[in-house]
Amino acid sequence: MNYRIRLLTGLLVTAGLVVHAQNKPKPEDVKTFTLRNGMKFMVLEDHSIPNANFYTFWKVGARNEVHGITGLSHFFEHMMFNGAKKYGPKQFDRVMEANGGSNNAYTTENTTVYTDWFQSGALETIFDLEADRIRDLAIDPKMVESERGVVLSERSTGLENSNYRVISELVKSVAFVEHPYMFPVIGFESDIKKWTQADLERYFKTYYSPNNAVAVVVGDITAAQVRKLAEQYIEPIPAQPLPDSIRTVEPPQNGERRVTTYKDIATPNILLAYHTPATRHPDYYALDLLSGVLSAGNSSRLVKALVLDSTIASRAFTNFGESFDPNLFYIYGIAASNVSAEQLERSILNQIDKVIAEGISDAELQKLKNQKLMEFYRTMETINGKANSLGTYELFFGDYKKLYEAPSLYEKVTKEDVQRVARTYLTARNRTVGYLLPEPTKKGAAN
Amino acid sequence: MKTILTLITALFLAGISQAQTFKVPPYQKLKLKNGLTVYLMEQREVPLINVSVVFDAGAVQDGNRYGLANMTAEALLFGSAKYTKAQLEEKAEYVGASIETYAGKEVAKLSASFAVKDQDLLFDIIQDVVTKPTFDQAEFDKYKQRQLLQLTQQKESPRAVVNSYFNRFVYDAHPYANPITGTPSAVSAITVSDVRQFYLKNYTTDRAAIAIVGDFNSADMKKRITSLFGNWKTAAATTPKLTEPQVTFDKNRVLLINKDDARETTFLIGGKGITQNNPDFIPVTVVNTILGGRFTSWLNDALRVNSGLTYGAGSRFGTYRNSGTFAISTFTKVSTTTEAIDLALHVLDSLHRTGIDEKVLESAKNYVKADFPPRYESASELANLLTDMFSLGFDESFINNFQKNVDGLTVAKTRQIIDQYFPKNNLQFVLIGKADAIREKVKKYGTITEKEIKAEGF
Question: B253-452 falls under which CATH superfamily?
C-alpha cells in the first residue's frame, strides 16, 4: 500500500562504519547550497535508474503540540496535499501522478517529511508543485472536514491491527509527565474531532517557512539543474521568523512507573521504556550499539535467550530512534504461551542486568560494528536510502557529513562504553513498564 | 506475489519529458550438468554480493499438511552438516550478512546478502544449508511451538489474515487456497520426517535456479558456483503441474468473520483475476492503476478523499502461475460498513459503465512507467527478479519492453480489458468485523456464511 502518511516514532536510519572499498561513498559527492530565504538543499547525483526523488524535511512534529491540538502536525501533513493557489484540491496528486510521479509523507515526534518519487524528466513539475503548496497553501474548510474522517480511520486501523501501537501510546503518556513527547503522533481522538481552521492557519504560518526546512534531491538529475529550479521556484518564497524553541524540559524520572491495559489478545505484550539523551549527545552511538546487542539478529541477547533458546517470548525487540530532545529507549516483548507478563519482564531484566554486571564481549562489539557497515552499504544502494539518510543526519546529527563520519564514531565505542550506558540509563528508577494483557476470562463470571 | 499498480486522473499534462527506457542490466545464464540454472549479473555500486535461490517448493505442495512448505523453508536454517543453527547465525551475523528463507504460494526461496570480503564463508554456508540441511529435531520442536502461537496471534490483526480467508473462500479445495503459514492442527501434526521428505521431493536441481548479483567477476563466479553446486545430486522432480482451479460463481456470496472487539470492518470484494503470464498483464495493470492502484485511483478518491470513510482504498490483481484473483480492499468504522461497500461497488460499476478516457489513460501510463525502474534498483531486487524470471517463466523482454508495451495501450483496448478481466457480477465478499452489528445490513450483498475469527483455520 502506498498511502501517504505513516507515523513513525523514530526514523530508521543507518549509519556508516569503516568504509574501505574502492567504490567508497564520500561526502564530496553531495552538493549543497542555501537559498536566500534560508532553505538548504542537498543534491546527490545517481544515474543508475532514470528516476529521482525530492524529500523535504520540516522541523515540526508532535513535540510542537499542546493539549487541544495533539495530532495537528500529522493532520497538517495531510492538508499539504489538499490544495494550494495554483493547484487546487486534488490537483497536487493528479498532476504529479500524470507526470510520472508519486508521493508519500510521514510525521514523527520531531519532524514532518514529504517524499516525492518521479521519472527524472518531471523535476520541474515537482518544483512547481512543491513551491505552490509551500508558498500558498489553501486550507479549504470542506477538505478539513473530510480529512478528519481519514485521520480518525488511520488512528482506528492502527489500534485495530497493532498491539504495539496500543501499549506504546500508553507508556509514552506515563513516561513523560511534562515534555510533549507524551502525545501520540496521531493525536487524541477528541482533539482530531475538534481542531479548528485557525489552528491550521497558525500552524502553517509558524512552521512552514522555508528557513525551517531542508530539502534533499537524489537521482538522475544534476546539481546545476536543481539549483536553477530551486532559485526559480523556491527562493522567492519569503522567510518568516523561526518558531520558538521547545521550552519544556522533562525532569529526571525518580522511580519506576507502571501502567496496564487490556485487549482481546492471546498472550501478554510488555513494553519497557527508559529515558535516554537526545541524538546529539555523545552517548548516542553507544546506546545504539546497546540496542543492537540486545536485539539485532538471532544471535542477539534477547532474541537468543528469550525466543530461540527458551520458550519465554515469541518476539523481542528494541527501538531506539533519532530525537531532538531526550526521549526513550524501548524494549518490547510478546510472551510465549503460558508465560506471564511478570515472568517475561523478569527474563528481560535479567538480560539487562547481565550487560550491566558483566559487560559485552569483544566479538559482540565487533559484530555490531560490522553490521553497521553493511547497513550503510545497503542504504547507499538506493536513491531513497540516500535521500532519507542525508536529511535525517542533517537534522538530527546537525550535519549530513556525519552520515559519512559515523564509521569512525561507531568505531570509537568501546565495550566499557556500552556497559556504562546500560548501567547509566537502564535503571529501575528511570523505567516505565507497560503491560498489555489478555482480557480476563469470562468463565469465572459464567460459573 | 506481484501486485498490480495504479490508476487515474490527469488534469494537466505539462510537457512531460520522455522517461528513458529502463532495461535489465546485462547478465549471463547457464545450466549446470545437474540441471541447476545459474544467473550471474555484475553490479558494482557497493562492495556487496546478493544471492537468490529458488525451488519449486511452495505451499501448493502442502497437500493437507498446511504449513509444510513454510516449515521446510524455515528449517533449512536449523542446522546443516557443518554448522549448527546457532553457529551459522553467529557466523553470518558477525560479518553483518543476512540469510533468509521463506516459502510463498508456489515457490520457496533463499536470499542472502554479504560483503565481497566475506564471500568464502557465506557461499560455504549457503551450499551447506541448501544441499545438506540436518533438520535438527530440538530446533524444529521449538520452532513449531513459536509457530503455533503466531498462528493464534496473527488473528489479532484482521489485515494480516483477510487475504487467507479470501483465498479459501474463492479457491475452496484447490491448493491455491492453502494458507502459507498453515493452521494450528495441521502444523501440530507435522514432523521432522515430513519436512525431510518434502525437502527431498521438492528441492530438486532440475526446477531450481540460483542468481548472484553484485561486485564480482563473472568468469570467477561461474567457477565458484560450478564447484559448489555442480556435484549436487537430487531426485528428479515428480510433482505434476497444478490443475487450473475453477473460479466461477453463479451468485454473490458473503463470508462474515466475527471479531468481537473490532473497531472497524476490514473487507475484500472480488473474484477471478488473471495468471502471471497472461498476455494482457500490462494492460490489466494500467487499468487497475486507474481503478485502485494509486493515490488518485477512483476507489481511493471516492472512499478516502471525497468521503473520509477510510484511510485508504484500493484494488489489486494477485497473480499465480495458473490462476489469479481480483479484489477491492479497504476498511472503515463499524457504523459506515455498508456506506463504504456501496461506494466501492458503485466505483467498480462506473468502471464498467463509463470506461476510461484518453486523458486518464495517459496519466496512468506515465505513472506506471515511472513506478517501474525503482522496483529493480538494488542488487537484491535484481537477484530476486532473475529467480522470478526463472520460476514464473518470463524473460528480460518483459522488463525491457515494459514501457513500450504500456505506451501501446489504447482506449479501445481498455474497454475490452475491462469487459474481459474486471469482475462485474457474482462478487465474493469477505468481511472481518463485529458480526452482530453488521449482519442484518450486509445480507443484501449475498448469501452469508459466518465464521469466528478465533476458530481454527480460514
Answer: Metalloenzyme, LuxS/M16 peptidase-like (3.30.830.10)
